[in-house]
Amino acid sequence: MRLRRVLPFMMGANLGTTITSVLAATANPIAAAMTVALFHVIFNVTGTLIWWPLRVIPLRIATWYGRLAGQKISYAFLFLIGVFLVVPVVGITLTELFMRLR
């Protein structure tokens, strides 16, 4: 299946997952739970509305990087390490530094 045909399903699935948080919030008597759930819905809808007209950008990046990783498997591992290890560690470190400056 072509990547450009899959992207709308991915965006729809992203929006669909927000229903789970809304359902879970209805079972919670604390009002903050529904506030967080509705923010999750609004955040994902806003993100979808922003990225839908710009969908060619992530499609081209994914196609380019897929070809690159297909030629050299080490690029795929570097991507995984970067996304799932380096980016979170940098984010947590920066958050801790800014919290200490307060």
From TrEMBL:
Bilayer-spanning residue ranges: 37-54, 75-99
Organism in which the protein naturally occurs: Vreelandella sulfidaeris
Alphabetical UniProt keywords: Cell membrane, Membrane, Signal, Transmembrane, Transmembrane helix
One GO MF term attached to the UniProt entry: sodium:phosphate symporter activity
Membrane-topology descriptor: Multi-pass membrane protein
Claim: Transmembrane is one of the keywords in the record: yes
Primary site of residence: membrane
Compartment(s) of residence: Cell membrane
GO cellular component entries: plasma membrane
Protein name, per record: Uncharacterized protein
Keyword RNA-binding: no
Signal peptide interval: 1-24
GO terms classed as biological process: sodium-dependent phosphate transport
